[in-house]
Amino acid sequence: MAYFISICSGKGGTGKSTTAINLGYAMKTFDKDVTLLDNNLTTPNLGVYLGLEDVSVTLNDSLRGKNHATEAMYIHNSGLKVIPSSIALKDLNVNPENLRETFLDLKDNADIVIVDNSGGLSSDTIHGIRNCNEVLVVTNPDIASVTGALRVIKFAENLKKPIRGVVLSRVNNDKNELSLEEIEKTLGKEVIAIVEEDNIIKNSLLNGNSVIENFPKSKHSIEYKKLAARILGVKFDEELEEKKSRFFNFLRFLGVKK
Ligand SMILES: Nc1ncnc2c1ncn2[C@@H]1O[C@H](COP(=O)(O)OP(=O)(O)OP(=O)(O)O)[C@@H](O)[C@H]1O
Ligand SMILES: [Mg+2]
Question: What's the whole-number average pLDDT of the chain?
């Protein structure tokens, strides 16, 4: 029986799709069968990031009852299974209420389904939350995204959905950012991963890959793997991985690695 994790945020652009791709790939490294589902019907970008913008069957066809969800499933070269939503304007008019049936189609087709939602509480996201097993919240260290994240958390809790925790993404460590303590206190939830702003994330997405494939020893990769291990409840040798990471970062500092 697949386990559905909804990735949500209070506003757009916080790094949900980036989290979905990297968390998904990290889970694969722990031998899980992972499907990524692009439940962002108005600004779909998961498929675009993974080179699946021009496919014949999409989530939209599943929501229309035209196709079984598995017919909209494509295998990315990483081995991740991906269900993109359509970028065509003609496909905008679909009913997200039917997401329940799409989830049912997928229940025997993966260990984990990572649901990449749109920012805020639009109707696609509301159904993404309503039908999932748990919610993972992605925020940035600024007032707008933390306030929005709080709204999402309250909404999910009203539906009795467990909140796995908060991924604090796009962190620049500058003085204008909210601190970790302020964020945890405001949200009443633990920050379970911190992902700094770094071009290696953008660069990997540009190549249609996770940062783990492109820069496996970067601290970003370690953070996503740590997050995956925590969610899956499996052991992760953090000390060993961090030793490898320190060496990689040293080479990067010397300019030997980009
Ligand atoms: N840690 C990071 N470092 C650098 N760039 C990042 C990082 N995380 C995300 N980005 C970049 O920020 C932009 C938005 O990221 P992403 O598309 O994952 O956000 P999103 O929350 O899914 O957005 P939307 O709400 O529009 O779906 C992308 O250009 C992505 O490459
Ligand atoms: Mg997105």
Answer: 94
